[in-house]
Amino acid sequence: EKKLGFAMAAMAARIQYEAPQPTLPAYPYRVLEGLEGLKVGMGVELQWKMQFGSPFGWWFGHLEEMLVEPGTNLCNATVTFRHFPATSRWYRLEVRIGDAELRPCSFGGFTGGLRPMSEDENAHWMRFFPKEPVVF
């Protein structure tokens, strides 16, 4: 009986347990970097957050203009939010993107990068928007 107990204890000491490694999501609250896939006229998601330490939320808009700095991965982009009237201060936003830097937003809060949207993602977003721009 003692031998069996000793053998089991010795065996347990030699067993190496390997816990499964958690898989991390592709987006761990960092500013998106780069300009890959972005084209004028397409739907995009803009990273935005109200407070410096909070996670990003996403604003759906359309990429109206891209002014890429030659020889860099930096761009001044203009994004429109068509669910607001063209006269609204929230209709058009200029952002600097590409270098993974968090920047103050003229609407308040902070902006990150832009993510290009597929046609299916565009259609999904459109389910949540009004048919006409929101007027206050």
Q: CA-to-CA gap between the ends?
A: 83 Å
Low-confidence runs (pLDDT<50, min 5 residues)? none
- What is the tally of helical segments? 2
Q: If you compute it from the alpha carbons, what radius of gyration comes out, rounded to the nearest whole angstrom?
A: 24 Å
Q: What is the count of β-strands?
A: 6
* Mass-distribution shape: globular
Helix content, binned percent:
10-25%
Element string (H = helix, E = strand): HEEEEEEH
Strand content: 25-35%
| Average of pLDDT | 85
Strand order of the largest sheet: 4-3-2-1-6-5
Derived structural class: alpha+beta
Largest sheet: 6 strands, antiparallel
Please tell me about this protein's structure.
By secondary structure, the protein is α+β, with helices and mostly antiparallel strands. It is built from two helices and six strands. It has helices spanning 2-14, 119-126, and strands at residues 43-49, 57-68, 75-80, 92-97, 103-104, 110-116. Strands 4-3-2-1-6-5 form a six-stranded antiparallel beta sheet, with helices on one face. β2 (57-68) and β3 form a beta hairpin. The longest helix is centred in the N-terminal third of the chain and has 13 residues, at 2-14. The termini are far apart. The model has no long low-confidence stretch (mean pLDDT 85).
